[in-house]
Write a structure and sequence with these properties.
Blueprint lengths: L2 H30 L6 H4 L24 E8 L14 H15 L6 E13 L10 E3 L2 H14 L2 E6 L6 H7 L1 H4 L4 E5 L18 E2 H17 L5 E6 L6 E2 L11 E7 L5 H12 L7 E6 L10 H5 L7 E4 L1
Parallel strand pairs: 1-2, 1-11, 2-4, 4-5, 5-7, 6-8, 7-9, 9-10, 10-11
Antiparallel strand pairs: 2-3
Length: 317
């Protein structure tokens, strides 16, 4: 055999190998997407790297103790329910960013501007499903969550569950809670028994229901590989959260805040603050609420941060 035919055979073999190297992975990808093929054949799919996990503005995935929060509270388009409803989306983001910037010189932590949106609104009349709580559709809140994420703003979904329960309502907002910049608030003031009506009495919740909701949210956060989530528990009377000492604080992917959200003269609010913060479960942080219209004298940012223990979460209604 001469050298020339041998050389041609070698070149042909090299060409075949090159074509296989180029086309085989593409064939595997097509097979992986073909539901008609058996599982074993589809398993030849070439794995691509996962996207980089979401991180907060400081580059981390933990909220507390890295951040403190300053929030506008309310429901879009409804000024009667709080400051968040006073203006449209873009202006709400700008307003809370400016508000948060006033707090930044007062703390060593990063200050996270936050929108606390009432997602389920207590109603004094029966709603369609009879639970005395009007659920805002997720589709209506999605633009707020998306715009907030783009602007580096956190979102907390507040539940006023009426005659429903917190876990049932939280699950209705699972698509939004799968977003990395969305946390949850539970408001026992509006958690009612089957015979109670909003605005007639102050509601209560047993810690068992709270813990069940935390278990579900922590599992969702873990499954979706999400960063730590903020959970806010509203309280201005001790009996609003029954058996509070049994609060489960073991979920490292949840940052827990008990917010004293009572209004009135500052002397009364400070008395309530001391009551709520005394004897709290371990690993719990505290939040303060300023009311533009219901507090006779509104604390400025310096006065708010002078409260002891210093609040980790400050909201404006």
């Amino acid at each position: 055999m001469t050298a020339k035919p041998v050389f041609k055979q070698l070149m042909s073999a090299v060409l075949v190998l090159v074509l296989l190297a180029v086309n085989l992975p593409l064939a595997y990808e097509r097979q992986a997407d073909d539901p008609a093929l058996p599982v074993k054949a589809r398993s030849l799919h070439v794995h691509r790297p996962r996207p980089k996990p979401f991180a907060f503005p400081d580059g981390g995935r933990q909220l507390i103790p890295a951040y403190r929060f300053v929030a506008l509270y309310g429901t879009p388009g409804n000024p009667a329910l709080g400051a968040l409803g006073d203006q449209p989306l873009a202006d709400s983001i700008m307003r809370v960013q400016q508000l948060a910037s006033q707090y930044q010189p007062l703390t060593a932590q990063h200050v996270m501007p936050t929108l606390e949106i009432i997602a389920t609104i207590a109603s004094e009349t029966p709603t369609d499903n009879g639970d005395y709580s009007q659920e805002v559709p997720t589709a209506q809140l999605e633009p707020w969550v998306a715009a907030a994420r783009q602007a580096g703003v956190y979102v907390v979904l507040d539940l006023q569950s009426g005659r429903s329960d917190f876990l049932t309502q939280a699950k209705e907002y699972e698509p939004l809670l799968k977003q990395p910049n969305v946390g949850l608030a539970l408001d026992p003031e509006w958690r009612l028994t089957p015979t109670e009506v909003p605005l007639v009495q102050i509601g209560t919740v047993d810690i068992t229901e709270v813990n069940q909701t935390l278990d579900w949210l922590a599992a969702l956060t873990k499954h979706e590989r999400l960063p730590q989530k903020l959970v806010v528990l509203h309280q201005f009377r001790l009996d609003m959260i029954q058996n509070r000492q049994a609060l489960d604080t073991s979920h490292n992917n949840l940052a827990l805040v008990i917010q004293m959200d009572g209004s009135g003269p500052q002397s009364t609010k400070l008395d309530t603050w001391r009551t709520i913060t005394a004897g709290a479960p371990p690993d719990v942080h505290f939040g303060w609420k300023n009311f533009y219209h219901q507090d006779p004298a509104l604390l400025d940012p310096a006065g708010t941060m002078a409260v002891q223990p210093q609040p980790w979460y400050v909201s404006y209604q």
